[in-house]
Amino acid sequence: MTELASFVDAHVGRRIRLLRGLRKYSQEKLAKALGITFQQVQKYERGVNRVGAGRLYELAQILEVPVGFFFDELEGFGSSDVRMGRLHERQAPFQKSKGSSEKTSSETPDKKDGGIELLMLPETLELARAYYSISDEKIRQQLMNFIRDVAERSS
Fold first, then answer.
1. pTM of the predicted model, to two decimals?
2. Where are stretches of biased composition, namely Basic and acidic residues (predicted)?
3. For the chain, which terminal residue's Cβ has fewer other Cβ atoms within 10 angstroms, N or C?
């Protein structure tokens, strides 16, 4: 297995773990939905075992995301990879929903600026759960605008 393939497997595993946490799925619950053992889910999440295309499709269906979500923010998929013939086109970032006004970027964020490591923190998951527990979409949008304003002022 090549170094790039190992890196991709680890990245996909982190994305599985992130989504599992956001969807409040235990490893056992996800494993049961996939018809595998929870140990296999652990191996996928650690990047020890490679997730096949069919299994990745199943995961996307169960976790309700496009398959491309698992490859978003994947480092090393820049223009040098295109020149080396590893990619035919630049990967587009995952977009949350049709109605989302959130801007997306095809650039990979620096780890110090966030990225997937930040999304996997328990505090981040708690914040996301609390945010989506607000049933009024207008109030959620006002809260999002407030947080953005505070973040801009503090930087």
1. 0.56
2. 99-115
3. C
